Amino acid sequence: MTEAIRTHREYKRLAIRSKRMVVELNDAKAAFQLLTPDKLDRLLRRTEQVMIRETQEWLDLMSFAELHRTI
Length: 71
Description:
The protein is mostly helical. It is built from 2 helices and no strands.
């Protein structure tokens, strides 16, 4: 039971962070309207950072969940 509650809380935290990522990516999408090559480069780097951060947090959550299942 405790494991289920902990896992639920972690998924809720991940869902909140994913919603923030949607907002950030929508902001990036809006910025595509007036692009120069330099602006495009900055925008792509920002988008990459957002996606890397989200992926890392998901991987961290999944590795944590696996540890709890094996203990």
